[in-house]
Amino acid sequence: MISLKNVNKRYGERVKALIDVSFNVKQGEFVYLVGPSGAGKSTLLKLLTREETLTSGSIKLGNMQVEKVALNKLYLLRRQIGIVMQKDLFIPYYSVFENIAYCLEALGVRGALKEERGLEVLELVGMSAYKDKMLQELSIGQQKKIAIARAIVNKPFVLIADEPTANLDTKSSAEIMKLFFRLNQRGTTVIMATHDSTMVNSIRKRVLELQGGRLIRDDHDGGYTSYA
Ligand code: ADP
Ligand code: ADP
């Protein structure tokens, strides 16, 4: 379902962000991507979404050869992926529901179906009661839930998240993680970059560890020693 073969990514001539990275992820898997700052985690996620282009190697996602997708077909790739970034950008003068509706419109969903689907994803993340609030009125944890709702409006088969629990307190982190596990149980593949060793160690899943751009570990229910 996701397959990387000998992937290399350089920024300019000197920075080797990823070196000969290969692995496969099956449909329905949950994968933690760990490693110290600068290890290449964000770069790896950006290659999957084609926010960055690889230097050599190949990446397959579903039935698409990621590095070969034409620019005018990128939307087809991105439609299959839900993305939760480190910083969630919303339209500040739109309500929670309007922010979700805006994404649905971009996907060509309109009218009653837009209402229905919008409310459905807000329900799924436990935020329907907040649909008419403005984003600034929500806590960071609540905003993260809206970001997750937005990421799943297109029913992606893979959900990619970059440090989704960064800057959250323990309780909010646990809620966000629970949400990802629930979505995973519904069949969505999840790939999550994280520094949250407590979480990785308490809820064991597959762990891919990067260090200096190399994949140094792939454990099927691995733990994680935190980096100071
Ligand atoms: P993290 O370590 O949590 O990924 P960083 O602070 O390293 O966050 O990076 C933040 C953003 O800046 C990322 O999108 C990353 O790709 C980009 N970035 C990191 N290093 C550089 C660099 N040397 N030049 C330009 N952009 C960079
Ligand atoms: P992580 O997410 O694990 O912190 P990154 O993928 O952000 O790691 O960064 C991997 C390496 O690539 C780092 O050395 C970082 O400085 C560098 N890097 C990331 N983005 C860029 C960029 N846009 N331009 C130049 N160097 C970058």
From TrEMBL:
<keyword id="KW-0131">Cell cycle</keyword>
<dbReference type="InterPro" id="IPR003593">
    <property type="entry name" value="AAA+_ATPase"/>
</dbReference>
<dbReference type="InterPro" id="IPR015854">
    <property type="entry name" value="ABC_transpr_LolD-like"/>
</dbReference>
<keyword id="KW-0132">Cell division</keyword>
<comment type="function">
    <text>Part of the ABC transporter FtsEX involved in cellular division. Has ATPase activity. Essential for cell division and viability.</text>
</comment>
<dbReference type="GO" id="GO:0016887">
    <property type="term" value="F:ATP hydrolysis activity"/>
</dbReference>
<keyword id="KW-0547">Nucleotide-binding</keyword>
<dbReference type="GO" id="GO:0005524">
    <property type="term" value="F:ATP binding"/>
</dbReference>
<comment type="similarity">
    <text>Belongs to the ABC transporter superfamily.</text>
</comment>
<protein>
    <submittedName>
        <fullName>Cell division ATP-binding protein FtsE</fullName>
    </submittedName>
</protein>
<keyword id="KW-0813">Transport</keyword>
<dbReference type="GO" id="GO:0051301">
    <property type="term" value="P:cell division"/>
</dbReference>
<dbReference type="InterPro" id="IPR003439">
    <property type="entry name" value="ABC_transporter-like_ATP-bd"/>
</dbReference>
<dbReference type="InterPro" id="IPR027417">
    <property type="entry name" value="P-loop_NTPase"/>
</dbReference>
<dbReference type="Pfam" id="PF00005">
    <property type="entry name" value="ABC_tran"/>
</dbReference>
<dbReference type="GO" id="GO:0005886">
    <property type="term" value="C:plasma membrane"/>
</dbReference>
<keyword id="KW-0067">ATP-binding</keyword>
<feature type="domain" description="ABC transporter">
    <location>
        <begin position="2"/>
        <end position="228"/>
    </location>
</feature>
<dbReference type="GO" id="GO:0022857">
    <property type="term" value="F:transmembrane transporter activity"/>
</dbReference>
